[in-house]
């Protein structure tokens, strides 16, 4: 790189910084910037186009084009050369613009006399902000070095945080990150919340993009990269993985941290006048732009590594850790790309809502959010890039919609809706101590699902009859080694204490498939949901299940112990698991421990095979609980985690109801109590149909107990049974429309 060019570039950046710092009006400042750049680069025209919305660019300042065109000239993304730069995120550099493919001139600007054209994207960390354009009469192409200089200038412009405020003469639109935005996502946990944004991983803020002294900046960069390399080496050593593929990924990560190309590009940026952190950000922006265009998943992952390393490097350079010293606002609504269950547990109940860019309904974070009854929206677009700490935000967990920086009309409508829901909740609370009894006199027991000690207070507030499903995975998932028997026993005992004599049904560990323990070697199975999971692991490698059973027996000491085994697919699995529990009880007896005064051993019915199991299965089980989430996915061959197929098959399809009826019949014949503990039990319409088909126990999220009880109490279950039977014979695929219409007319 020529020395004179780098020093020119540095001079330009320093003048730019002074202009940015000067106390002039926004538009005036932007105008000064364009003339400064034109003069420094020796071109007749310098223009800045900014995004007005995601599809339109607006000419916001120019030196050289007609002043009347400013804020008047607009073009669509993809239109003309400027639009091409905006769409592709790539530089266009041509000596003869009019002969370039896609060229389109805007007569009002007077640009027809200019031949050469350079367009450089203005983007910040993959977020497109606009296009910086230079034009000149002589037909010259710019050298790679000159282009590089213009990119560095564009980078500094991108750091002007309020660029968007210049669009539409400052009145039509607010600045970027100040406009209202709406995100449509999936529902992880229902409920509504209003609050302020709290970013789980706040963006690192680069306050000084221009270097005072390039030598100092280079030293800072070298030191920071050294620190980064040491931390990556440590991470590799600590990972102690033996998995070959994982090793390769970590090695690739280390390779990037040591990449000479990366280091050289950042050093060049500094020589051009950027500060060390701005140089890191510039390369990160470039990597993100590439990331969005690379179709190959492996390469995209590697670019993602680079992105991650850049974030670490920025933290080292700016001293901004995750903990930025910012204070959590009141009514915090957590925004994150994704979050693990452990991190969510650390936040605890203080959060009013959670919005994730990724996440899935069955993720552990979703389980924790449900346990805390915190509204959760998943798959919410690019909200983590758009939101800023402290932004006003509304989370509508019923509709799966998030309003960021909402307008007054939205706020009013949202608050009205919340008030109506609060009234409804009040009505449900008044039913708390009343039975879930249909108009025909049939009573259904409503239990709650739980998985954390934190769930237990809901037992009293919801009026649940007991805990119909206590998922025991979370105590294993949120720690970095297998929990100790004593600790588990203490937790289970606390859960039973908190239940104050109400029955708690503990389900033994259901790991594998979507629930992989962090300290377990992940198995490479083609279909993990059909793979080595739950009871299959428990029986093949009995050490952990035995330990868990011992902990449960000790926790129950002198009380009733209710245990159920997950994912039973054939009779012998249940027989073996049951015998294992009985053997453990014997062992505890010989060791002199106090035994439970009663033991109930049940099975989860989660595979269609068990509907047709030998009669002995129904007789041997003290109770059976339908795991509808799994049963449905296997019955319909539709992955419960796959958004494309998850909702395709209705629970109230005649075929699924026929299956349920068969289970009810078989349990009745063996006098075995039957419950349903999948998500569908908490949906009022489904719940009332299950009850009409003869199900007498339903277990659901605590928040669903009120709505389900309310509908059951308004329904004559015997009449509903007749309605279902008639609809089943009518040739309809699902009884839902008929049942819904009947309930509207009859469940007053
Ligand atoms: C089910 O499958 O319905 C169930 C309750 O278990 P889980 O959702 O934990 O797999
Ligand atoms: Mg299940």
TrEMBL record:
Its cofactor is Mg(2+). GO terms for biological process: phosphoenolpyruvate-dependent sugar phosphotransferase system. It catalyses: L-histidyl-[protein] + phosphoenolpyruvate = N(pros)-phospho-L-histidyl-[protein] + pyruvate. It is found in: Cytoplasm. One of its GO terms (molecular function) is phosphoenolpyruvate-protein phosphotransferase activity. It holds the Pfam family PEP-utilizers_C. SUPFAM superfamilies: Enzyme I of the PEP:sugar phosphotransferase system HPr-binding (sub)domain (SSF47831), GAF domain-like (SSF55781), Phosphoenolpyruvate/pyruvate domain (SSF51621), Phosphohistidine domain (SSF52009). InterPro entries: GAF, GAF-like_dom_sf, PEP-util_enz_mobile_dom, PEP-utilizing_PTS_enzyme, PEP_util_C, Phosphohistidine_dom_sf, PTS_EI-like, PTS_EIN. GO terms for cellular component: cytoplasm. Residues 25-171 form the GAF domain. Its EC number is 2.7.3.9. Keywords: Cytoplasm, Kinase, Magnesium, Metal-binding, Phosphotransferase system, Pyruvate, Sugar transport, Transferase, Transport. SMART domains: GAF (SM00065). Coiled coil: none annotated. The keyword Kinase applies. Its main location: cytoplasm. Belongs to the PEP-utilizing enzyme family. This is phosphoenolpyruvate--protein phosphotransferase. It comes from Aliiroseovarius halocynthiae. The gene is ptsP.
């Amino acid at each position: 790189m020529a020395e004179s060019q780098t020093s020119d570039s540095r001079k330009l950046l320093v003048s730019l910084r002074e202009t940015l710092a000067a106390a002039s009006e926004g538009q005036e400042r932007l105008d000064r910037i364009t003339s400064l750049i034109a003069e420094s680069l020796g071109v007749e025209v310098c223009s800045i186009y900014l995004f007005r919305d995601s599809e339109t660019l607006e000419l916001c300042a120019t030196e050289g084009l007609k002043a009347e065109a400013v804020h008047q000239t607009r073009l669509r993304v993809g239109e003309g050369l400027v639009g091409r730069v905006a769409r592709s995120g790539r530089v266009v550099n041509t000596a003869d613009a009019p002969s370039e493919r896609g060229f389109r001139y805007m007569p009002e600007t007077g640009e027809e006399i200019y031949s050469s054209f350079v367009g450089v994207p203005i983007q910040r960390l993959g977020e497109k902000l606009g296009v910086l354009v230079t034009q000149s009469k002589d037909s010259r192409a710019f050298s790679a070095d000159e282009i590089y200089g213009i990119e560095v200038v564009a980078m500094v412009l991108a750091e002007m945080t309020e660029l968007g405020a210049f669009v539409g003469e400052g009145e039509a639109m607010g600045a970027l990150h100040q406009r209202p935005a709406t995100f449509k996502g999936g529902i992880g946990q229902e409920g509504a919340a209003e609050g302020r944004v709290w970013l789980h991983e706040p963006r690192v803020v680069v306050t000084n993009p221009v270097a005072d002294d390039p030598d100092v900046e280079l030293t800072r960069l070298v030191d920071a990269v050294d620190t980064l390399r040491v931390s990556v080496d440590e991470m590799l050593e600590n990972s102690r993985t033996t998995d070959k593929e994982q090793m390769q990924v970590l090695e690739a990560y280390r390779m990037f941290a040591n990449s000479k190309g990366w280091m050289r590009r950042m050093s060049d940026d500094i020589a051009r006048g950027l500060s060390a952190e701005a140089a890191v950000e510039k390369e990160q922006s470039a990597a993100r732009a590439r990331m969005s265009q690379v179709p190959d998943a492996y390469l995209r992952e590697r670019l993602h590594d680079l992105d991650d390393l850049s974030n670490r490097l920025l933290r080292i350079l700016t001293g901004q850790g995750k903990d930025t010293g910012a204070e959590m606002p009141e009514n915090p609504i957590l925004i994150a790309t994704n979050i693990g269950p452990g991190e969510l547990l650390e936040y605890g109940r203080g959060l009013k809502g959670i919005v994730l860019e990724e996440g899935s309904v069955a993720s552990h974070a979703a389980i924790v959010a449900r346990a805390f009854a915190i509204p959760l929206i998943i798959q919410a677009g690019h909200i983590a890039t758009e939101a800023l700490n402290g932004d006003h935000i509304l989370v509508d967990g019923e509709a799966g919609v998030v309003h960021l920086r909402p307008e007054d009309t939205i706020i009013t409508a949202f608050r009205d809706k919340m008030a109506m829901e609060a009234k409804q909740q009040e009505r449900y609370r008044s039913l708390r101590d009343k039975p879930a009894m249909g108009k025909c006199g049939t009573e259904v027991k409503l239990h709650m699902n739980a998985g954390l000690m934190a769930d237990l207070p809901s037992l009293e507030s919801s009026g649940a009859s007991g805990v119909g499903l206590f998922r025991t995975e979370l105590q294993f998932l949120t720690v970095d080694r297998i929990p100790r028997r004593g600790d588990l026993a203490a937790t289970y005992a606390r859960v039973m204490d908190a239940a104050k004599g109400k029955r708690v049904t503990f389900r033994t560990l259901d790991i594998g498939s979507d629930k992989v323990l962090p300290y377990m070697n992940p198995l490479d199975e083609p279909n993990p949901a059909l793979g080595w999971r739950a009871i299959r692991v428990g029986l093949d490698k009995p050490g952990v299940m035995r330990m868990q059973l011992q902990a449960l027996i000790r926790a129950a000491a002198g009380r009733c112990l209710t245990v159920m085994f997950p994912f039973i697919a054939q009779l012998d699995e249940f027989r073996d698991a049951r015998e294992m529990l009985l053997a453990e009880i014997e062992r505890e007896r010989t060791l002199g421990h106090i035994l439970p005064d009663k033991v109930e051993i049940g099975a989860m019915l989660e595979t269609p095979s068990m509907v047709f199991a030998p009669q002995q299965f129904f007789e041997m089980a003290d109770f059976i609980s339908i795991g509808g989430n799994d049963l449905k996915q296997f019955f319909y061959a539709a992955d419960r985690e796959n958004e494309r197929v998850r909702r395709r098959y209705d629970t109230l399809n005649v075929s699924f109801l026929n299956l349920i009826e068969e289970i009810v019949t078989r349990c009745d014949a063996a006098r075995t109590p039957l419950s349903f503990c999948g998500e569908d039990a908490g949906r009022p319409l489904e719940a009332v149909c299950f009850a009409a088909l003869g199900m007498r126990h339903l277990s659901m999220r605590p928040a669903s107990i009120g709505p389900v009880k309310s509908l059951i109490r308004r329904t004559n279950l015997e009449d509903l049974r007749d309605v279902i039977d008639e609809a089943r014979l009518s040739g309809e695929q699902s009884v839902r429309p008929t049942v819904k219409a009947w309930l509207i007319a009859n469940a007053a």
